[in-house]
Amino acid sequence: MHLLLLSNSTQHGRGYLEHALDTVTGFLPAGGRLVFVPYAIADHDGYTAQVRGALAGAGIDVRGVHEGGDPLARLDEADAVFVGGGNSFRLLSALYRTGLREALIKAVGAGLPYMGASAGTNMAAPSLRTTNDMPIVEPPSFEALGLVPFQINPHYLDPDPASTHKGETREERLTEFLEENDVPVLGLREGSWLRVDGDRAALGGARDARLFRRGAAPREIAVGADLSELLGTTPAFDSPA
To answer: Which residues are catalytic (predicted)?
Structure first.
C-alpha cells in the first residue's frame, strides 16, 4: 500500500494543503487523475473546488467522486484517491451508503495511492473509535477501512497545564480507549503526517507525534522516526484490561 495520512489539511496562516504541498505533490502521480472524496462536508462541489484550486499548479487533475453520478466508476478511473476531512461519522456513513468502503479497501490494497486528511486519516484505521468528532449521523458500523492495523488520532492536542477547563484532555480520552481496547494509537499533532509504503512507515511533517499503548506511558515519536513496527499490530477491540 501507498498511504499519506495527514493530521490536518488547513494550518493557521496558510492556504489549504499549503503546509504539506511539497509532500502531497511528491506523493501523488505527476499529471495523474486524483479522485477526491468530499463526503465529510455537506458542500461536495465547493469542497472539491477547494482541492482542485490547491493542486492546480501541480498539474493534478482533480475529480470529485460524486461528479458524474457513479462514485465507483469515478474511483475506477483514478490514479490516486484523496479522502478529505470534516465529520468522520458523516464520512463513514457515506462510504457505506455508496459502496465506496469496500471499493476503497480493494483498490488501495491493489496499489492505488491513498491520501487522507483528518477524517480521511481516521478512515485508514480499523475503527472510528478514536475520532474527535461528534456523531451527527449513525453509520452502520464503526469499522473503517483498516488500511493500517492501528488507530490514529489526528489533531492531537497536548494537555494545557495552565487551563482551568475541567473536561477530559485528549490524553485522558485515549487512555480510556485503551482500557477497553488493546491497539496502539498514534496521536498526530497539527502539521504532521504518516507515510506508508509497503511494509515501511515513517513520521513526517513539522511536529513530533505521541504514541499510546496499553500498559505503558505515552511516548514521544520524533519526526523522521521509523514506525514500521506498528504495521505488524494485531488489534483487539472490546478487550477490557
So the answer is: 118, 133, 155
